[in-house]
Amino acid sequence: MAGRISWTCAGSCSGVARNSPCVRWCTIAVFVHNEFDFTESVTLNLGLRYTDDSIKVKDAIMGIGVLPQFGKEKFVTPCLITTYPAGPIGSPACPFLGPAAPPFNDSRNDKDFSWRVGVEWNASDDLLVYSNITTGYRSGGYSLPFAGAATTFEPEELLTLELGFKYQLLDDTLRINASAFRYVYDDVQVNVDDPVSPLVPITRNIGEQLNTGFEADITWQPVPALNLRQSVGYLDSEFNNTDRVVSTYTGAIPLEGKRPVNSPEWTYNGALRWQQQVADGMDLIIGVDYRWIDDRYLEATNQPFDKQGDYWVANARVALATDKWEVAVYGTNLFDEDYVTYINNIGFFRIDVYGEPQTFGASVRYRF
Q: Would you list the domain boundaries of the chain?
């Protein structure tokens, strides 16, 4: 993968930011799983997985080229945006540019054994109660920003505890699923701003992250043509046992006790689908789905101006369909809700990525 960004410094210099790493990733995994029936109603589930991840970075160039004159596309001097020294244009120190850096080459290898233990109890023909203890793993890797030094991060480990049930009633037309969980991440990998890369977030190991919550969903088919689904989730999430401090333009901010990015406390979503035959071999399908997302932070530092407020989004679709073809009209974000899905706030400017705006359209499908 590679990237290039051109810019002009106000009346002073111009240049090109270049990022051209070659990254090779090889993963080998072996896993086994088995079930043991203790009784007619109790089952033990056991699983084991071994993972071997190898990563190699070759000739990665992350830096800035200072151009002798605006408009040229020649990469002259690779420089790192690490500090902000003053200096003549074209020298190793130019405003907003740091010293030159050679291509980066490195490799790493991570290995992990993860496991799962679960118990299922069929309390009746309609009720299943289950509990799981599971470990997980995400390999380490490299952050290769276009404007900063290459850095490495270590593997992330996860321990999950889950207790839940699945219940069917009313002749299996009503299904209720619910579960409570506890996730404990160790050396969690988080994208944060960093002095070695002030323009682009890089991945760092933060320490511990604790997630505690529950999820519940109900699916109901009151008549053959209609399906209804409702679900709700609650999440208490925070960084814990960490000494990581993020340097921002407002000062150093410790991450201890902060809420992770995109971790709303409450979520709710629902959907309905009506499918009815209107002619021989032809169905009318009407679908509506909607969701509500609670307040959430979009930067790990949890600053007030990096917080997205709660919002609703609704979508709808109407289609005529046969076994061979389908004609549909649809609308997304029906009430044209403005909401931000990503923020990169570096002080003197901020990048906001918005969710999809209100959109209407039509589609035609044919199955050969």
A: 140-367
195 pLDDT tier (thresholds 50, 70, 90): low
Contact 157, 185 (CB under 8 A): yes
Cα–Cα nearest to 334, from 360, 311, 309, 352: 360
Residue with tokens 């699923």: 177
Q: How far apart are CA 136 and CA 31, in angstroms?
A: 13
The DSSP letter of residue 207 is: -
Number of alpha carbons in the 13 Å side-chain half-sphere of residue 177: 11
Question: 238: how many CB neighbours lie within 10 A of its CB?
Answer: 18
Domain 140-367 belongs to what topology? Maltoporin; Chain A (2.40.170)
Alpha-carbon span 137 to 154, nearest angstrom: 11
pTM of the shown model: 0.83
Sign of CA dihedral 261, 264, 265, 269: negative
Q: Report whether 296 contacts 289 (CB < 8 A).
A: no
Cα distance between residue 290 and residue 331, in whole Å: 12
- Evaluate whether 295 touches 285 at the Cβ level (below 8 Å): no
Task: Tell me, rounded to whole angstroms, the distance of Cα 201 from its chain centroid.
Answer: 14
Tokens of 324: 């061979």
Q: 332-367, pLDDT tens digit by residue?
A: 999 999 999 998 877 667 789 999 999 999 999 999
Which of 317, 328, 208, 194 lies closest to 256, judged by CA? 208
State how beta strands 3-8 and 141-143 pair. Answer: unpaired
CB-CB contact of 343 with 302 (8 Å): no
